[in-house]
C-alpha cells in the first residue's frame, strides 16, 4: 500500500474523497438550495471580489442561484450518471472482450467488426440521434448514450489481454486438469484481466464525466431542475462576458476530477499487481525469508491406500496408433507436424520420447491431451486410454479425463502457474474439479499433495504466489498438481529443462519415487538422452515428426541402430565418460514446410544412399515387451532396399 502514499496518488485520493463526500452528503454540505432563485442577488461575484457576499462563496448565476451549491449537487448527478454508465459499459465490454479473445475465429470477427462500426460512428451524432429527438433528456437516456459509446474501449482492452493470457502455459495447464472453457475464463483468465479492466474503468469514469459535461454544454444535458456540472458549465457559457466565475469554477471542478481519477488509476494499477505488493522494508523482510530455501524432506508421506493404478490389467493404459497431426497454412500447403506415431504405455512403465526441437515431441503430447491450438488438428490415428478412444470424445468428456486419468507437466513452471493466484488455491483447484469435496477439504488435500512432493512447510508454500518460490519449487508444485488426483498416465513435457543440473537431478529422483508409489505410467518428453537413460524403460527417438527408432532404453543407448540416434549420443559423450568437446548433429533441422520425398534425415545423414533420398523408410520391427527393436533406416535394414531397387530396374 506504500504506492498509494506517493504525493500524486495522495492528491488524487483527496480530490476523489471530496467528490464522494459531495455525492453522499450534498444536502449537508451545500449552503443553499441549488435551485433557489433570488433575482435581487443575480451575478454576485465570488466572496473575495468587490461586491461579493460571504454567504455566496463562489458567487451566483443569472437567476441568483448559489454556484457553490449547484457544483456540490452537480457532482452527485455527474458522478451518478458517469458511474452507472461505466458499470454498464464495463460489464458488457468485458464480456464481449473475453468471448472475442478466448474463442477467436468468427466470434472475434463479429464482435470486432461491430466495435469498428461503433468507433466509426461519431459520438456526437449518436447523442444527437438519441437525445435531440427526445422530448425529455432524462438521466437514463444519457446513461444509455454514454454506455453505448464506451463499451468498445473495455472490449478492446480486455480482448488484447485475453489473447495474451489464453496462450500462457497456466491456461493450457488448466485444460490439462479438465477445466471447462467457462471455468477457465472465469476462474483463470478473468482474475488476470480484472486489474487492467478496473484501471480502465476508473479512467473511463473520468472520460464519461467529461462527455456528460460536453453533452450539457451542447444543450443535450439532463433536463432542469436536475443540475450537473455540465448544466452549470452551459449556463456559464452564455454569461461568460459578465460572470467569468460561472464558467471558470465548473471548468476547474471537471478538470480536477478528471485529473484526480487518472492519478488514482495510476496508483491502483500498482496496487492490483501482486508482483508489486511487497515494497520497502516489507519486501526486504520477505526477501530475507525467501533466502532461507525450502529444503526438501527426505522421503515423503505415504500415499493414500487405493490410489495406485491397477497394473494387473493386460491391455495398455495408453495406446497411440498411427497418430498424424497437421497444420494448415495461409498460403495453401498443409504442414505435417507428426506422422504415424505409435506407442503404448502400461501401468508403472516409463517411456521416453527424445529428439531435437521441432521433432514433434510436444505436438504429439498435446494431441494426446486434446490440447492442440487451432489450426492444428489430428488428421488420423487413434489415442486410447484404458481402451477408450479419446479422439472421439467431446471437450466436455475430455475435461472429465484430463487431470483425473491423464495428467500433464509442462515445460516451464514459471509460466504454467497462474501469477495472480496463490499456490495452495491452484493445487486445490485441480482437486475440486475432479473430487467431491469442499474448499476446506480440497485445501487440506492440496497441502498433503505439496508434502508428497517433498516440500517442507507446505502450509507456508501454499500461501505464496508462484513468483515467491524458486524454479525447483515451482516444478514441484506442478508435479503436485498433476498427481493430485492420482492419474494413471502422466505426460511430462521436458519437466526439468528450465532448472539447473542439481535441481534437475533432484526433481527426477523425487518424481521417480512418487510415480513408483502410484504405479503411474509416465511419458517423458525430453531432448536429453542422459535423462532418458536414468529414468525410462523404453525410448522413442523422433525426427521431423516421425519415429526413427524405438526400443528398450538400455539396448538403444548401448547399440543405436539409426544414424540420428548415434548422432544424439555422440552429442552427449558424458554418458560414456569420454573427455573432449561434445559433437553436434551436423546440418540444420528439417523445415516441415519443405519435407523431402525420402528419409527426412537424409540431408544430414553420413550413411545416406540414393534410395534414402527417393523413398521414406518404414519402421521395421516391433517395440514390444520381448525387447525387440524398431528402426526406420535403409542402412540398418538393408533387406528393405532390395524391393525398391528391383522396382527401379523394372
TrEMBL record:
Belongs to the binding-protein-dependent transport system permease family. One of its GO terms (cellular component) is plasma membrane. It is a multi-pass membrane protein; Peripheral membrane protein. It is found in: Cell membrane; Membrane. One of its GO terms (molecular function) is ATP binding. The chain crosses the membrane at residues 79-102, 114-133, 139-158, 193-222, 242-265. The keyword Membrane applies. Residues 323-569 form the ABC transporter domain. It comes from the Bacteria. The keyword S-adenosyl-L-methionine does not apply. Residues 75-265 form the ABC transmembrane type-1 domain. Residues 579-598 are annotated as: Disordered. Pfam families: ABC_tran, BPD_transp_1, oligo_HPY, OppC_N. Residues 585-596 have a biased composition (Basic and acidic residues). Keywords: ATP-binding, Cell membrane, Membrane, Nucleotide-binding, Transmembrane, Transmembrane helix, Transport. This is Oligopeptide/dipeptide ABC transporter, ATPase subunit. Its main location: membrane. GO terms for biological process: peptide transport; transmembrane transport.
Amino acid at each position: 500500500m506504500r504506492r498509494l502514499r506517493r504525493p500524486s496518488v495522495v492528491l488524487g485520493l483527496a480530490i476523489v474523497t471530496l467528490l464522494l463526500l459531495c455525492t453522499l452528503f450534498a444536502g449537508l454540505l451545500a449552503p443553499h438550495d441549488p435551485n433557489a432563485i433570488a433575482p435581487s442577488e443575480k451575478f454576485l461575484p465570488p466572496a473575495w471580489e468587490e461586491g461579493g457576499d460571504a454567504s455566496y462563496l463562489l458567487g451566483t448565476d443569472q437567476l441568483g442561484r448559489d454556484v457553490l451549491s449547484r457544483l456540490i449537487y452537480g457532482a452527485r448527478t455527474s458522478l451518478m450518471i458517469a458511474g452507472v454508465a461505466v458499470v454498464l459499459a464495463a460489464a458488457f465490454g468485458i464480456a464481449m472482450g473475453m468471448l472475442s479473445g478466448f474463442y477467436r475465429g468468427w466470434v472475434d470477427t463479429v464482435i470486432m467488426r461491430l466495435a469498428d462500426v461503433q468507433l466509426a460512428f461519431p459520438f456526437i451524432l449518436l447523442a444527437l440521434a438519441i437525445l435531440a429527438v427526445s422530448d425529455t433528456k432524462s438521466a437514463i437516456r444519457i446513461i444509455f448514450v454514454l454506455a453505448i459509446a464506451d463499451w468498445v474501449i473495455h472490449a478492446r482492452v480486455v480482448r488484447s489481454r485475453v489473447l495474451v493470457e489464453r496462450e500462457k502455459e497456466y491456461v493450457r495447464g488448466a485444460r490439462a486438469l479438465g477445466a471447462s472453457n467457462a471455468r477457465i475464463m472465469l476462474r483463470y483468465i478473468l482474475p488476470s484481466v480484472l486489474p487492467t479492466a478496473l484501471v480502465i474503468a476508473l479512467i473511463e469514469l473520468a472520460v464519461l464525466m467529461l462527455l456528460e459535461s460536453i453533452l450539457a454544454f451542447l444543450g443535450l444535458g439532463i433536463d432542469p431542475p436536475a443540475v450537473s456540472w455540465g448544466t452549470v458549465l452551459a449556463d456559464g457559457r452564455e454569461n461568460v462576458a459578465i460572470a467569468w466565475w460561472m464558467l471558470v469554477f465548473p471548468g476547474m471542478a471537471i478538470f480536477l476530477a478528471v485529473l484526480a481519477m487518472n492519478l488514482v488509476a495510476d496508483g491502483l494499477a500498482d496496487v492490483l499487481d501482486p508482483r508489486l505488493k511487497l515494497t520497502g522494508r516489507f519486501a526486504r523482510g520477505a526477501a530475507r525469508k525467501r533466502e532461507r530455501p525450502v529444503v526438501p524432506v527426505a522421503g515423503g508421506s505415504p500415499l493414500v491406500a487405493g490410489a495406485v493404478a491397477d497394473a494387473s490389467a493386460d491391455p495398455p493404459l495408453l495406446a497411440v496408433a498411427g497418430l498424424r497431426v497437421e497444420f494448415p497454412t495461409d498460403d495453401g500447403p498443409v504442414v505435417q507436424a507428426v506422422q504415424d506415431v505409435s506407442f503404448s504405455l502400461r501401468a508403472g512403465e516409463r517411456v521416453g520420447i527424445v529428439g531435437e526441437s521441432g521433432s514433434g515431441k510436444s505436438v504429439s503430447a498435446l494431441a494426446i491431451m486434446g490440447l492442440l491450438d487451432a489450426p492444428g488438428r489430428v488428421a488420423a490415428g487413434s489415442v486410447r486410454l484404458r481402451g477408450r478412444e479419446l479422439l472421439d470424445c467431446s471437450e466436455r468428456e475430455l475435461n472429465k479425463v484430463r487431470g483425473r486419468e491423464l495428467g500433464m507437466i509442462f515445460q516451464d513452471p514459471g509460466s504454467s502457474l497462474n501469477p495472480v493466484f496463490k499456490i495452495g488455491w491452484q493445487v486445490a483447484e485441480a482437486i475440486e474439479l475432479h473430487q467431491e469435496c469442499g474448499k476446506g477439504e480440497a485445501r487440506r488435500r492440496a497441502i498433503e499433495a505439496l508434502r508428497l512432493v517433498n516440500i517442507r512447510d507446505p502450509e507456508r508454500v501454499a500461501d505464496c504466489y508462484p513468483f515467491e518460490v524458486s524454479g525447483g519449487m515451482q516444478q514441484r508444485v506442478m508435479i503436485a498438481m498433476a498427481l493430485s488426483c492420482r492419474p494413471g498416465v502422466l505426460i511430462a513435457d521436458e519437466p526439468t529443462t528450465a532448472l539447473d543440473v542439481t535441481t534437475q537431478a533432484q526433481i527426477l529422483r523425487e518424481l521417480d519415487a512418487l510415480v513408483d508409489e502410484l504405479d503411474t505410467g509416465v511419458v517423458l518428453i525430453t531432448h536429453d538422452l542422459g535423462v532418458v537413460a536414468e529414468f525410462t524403460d523404453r525410448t522413442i527417438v523422433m525426427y521431423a515428426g516421425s519415429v526413427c527408432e524405438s526400443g528398450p532404453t538400455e539396448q538403444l543407448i548401448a547399440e543405436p541402430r539409426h544414424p540420428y540416434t548415434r548422432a544424439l549420443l555422440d552429442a552427449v559423450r558424458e554418458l560414456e565418460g569420454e573427455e573432449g568437446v561434445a559433437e553436434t548433429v551436423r546440418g540444420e533441422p528439417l523445415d516441415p514446410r519443405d519435407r523431402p520425398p525420402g528419409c527426412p534425415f537424409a540431408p544430414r545423414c553420413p550413411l545416406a544412399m540414393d534410395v534414402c533420398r527417393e523413398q521414406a523408410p518404414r519402421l521395421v520391427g516391433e517395440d514390444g515387451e520381448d525387447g525387440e527393436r524398431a528402426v526406420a533406416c535403409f542402412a540398418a535394414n538393408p533387406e528393405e532396399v532390395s524391393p525398391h531397387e528391383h522396382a527401379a530396374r523394372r
